[in-house]
Amino acid sequence: MPEAKLPQITVIGSLNKDLVTRTSRIPGAGETLTSESFATGSGGKGANQAVACARLGKRDVHSNGKVLVRMIGAVGDDAFGIELIDGLHRDGINADGVQTLSHKKTGVSVILVEVETGENRILFSPGANYFIQTEHINQVLVPGPPDLIVLQLEIRLSLVLAALKLAKDHSIDVLLNPAPALELPREAYPAITHLIMNETEAAILSKIPGNNWEHIACNFHDLGVRNVIITLGSEGVFYSTRDQTGHIAAERVKVVDTTAAGDTFVGAYAVSIVSQTHDGNHEDIEVAVREANKAAAMTVQKHGAQEAIPYSGDLPP
Q1: Catalytic annotation on 263?
Q2: Which H or E run contains 297?
Q3: ∠ CA 284-287-288 to the nearest 5 degrees?
Q4: Arithmetic mean of pLDDT over the chain
């Protein structure tokens, strides 16, 4: 009997080296503070989400995954680029779609983390991430279309829009995490199957003030989005489909570092959705949101970005 084909997730996005400083507070203008610690790590929203998909698709580091994960992106021809690609390989991610671009620098994120709250502030220098070409995405995607494409906005907007059009033309479901938030043209929305964002991103994209999440979600449904998920930090998660809305309470945990919480949420949600639909079941958004909520709660209890992303076996029942 032939081996069952696994569902595939393709992440198109950024790969960065993270330079992380932990501090008691954020310095004011012109002020110098002595930090508590400094570390480097692998990051970028695209790479983080790919790692989250890979880890949350298997019980532990030694297990076989229940999803195939492919990364499309670009790094520079420097030591950071080599480290990032090696990291993807260690997590079992197909990195054939990651280009190494000559005479370009790998993207870098400078991250300040407040020790007391775990809140972060990030400065992103895109480097090679802004030099991925549309033709490269076409060459990688079209011969073997995945079950789901995952996108963020740390690559050029024109490239994201081209990927959305390609997905729509080939009837591929898309999960868009619009971070960092940018206004999108109306014609982009019908290609988005799952829109996952936080409160700030929802306000920027919708241009609707306040916290009437149902009203905001209806706005995105009217534009053509099938499922809308808004993460609310300590207030939990709001979700909306064309048929139902709901709210999931936040997990009560001690927050150490929120850097990769959103990316972990996206990865867990993506794995849940493709696992459901690949088995011939209808997508259950509430189940996917609950699993994603648990995974993100595990991440915020640890320092770092990819270092903090759990395996499915780490999650509470």
Answers
A1: yes
A2: helix 285-299
A3: 85
A4: 93
Coil, helix or strand for 94?
strand
Contact indicator for 237, 213 with CB cutoff of 8 Å: no
**Pick from 158, 124, 115: nearest CA to 47:** 124
Beta bridge mates, 76: 101
pTM: 0.92
CA dist., res. 197 & res. 229, Å (int): 6
CA nearest to 266, candidates 53, 13, 24: 53
Sequence length of the chain is: 317
Contact predicate 203/177, CB 8 Å: no
Considering the candidates 263, 279, 284, 314, report the single residue annotated as catalytic: 263
- 8-state DSSP, 295: H
- Averaged pLDDT for residues 65-75: 96
d(CA 6, CA 153): 27
Tell whether omega for the bond before 180 is within 30 degrees of 0, i.e. cis.
yes
Tokens matching residue 296: 């993100």
Residues 127, 172: Cα–Cα separation, whole Å = 29
For residues 41 and 289, what is the distance between their CA atoms, to the nearest angstrom?
A: 27
> pLDDT by residue (tens digit) across 254-293?
888 887 899 999 999 999 999 998 777 788 999 999 999 9
Amino acid at 221: H
Q: Is 43 helix (H, G, I), strand (E, B) or coil?
A: strand
Contacts of 214 (CB under 8 A, 6+ apart): 240, 245
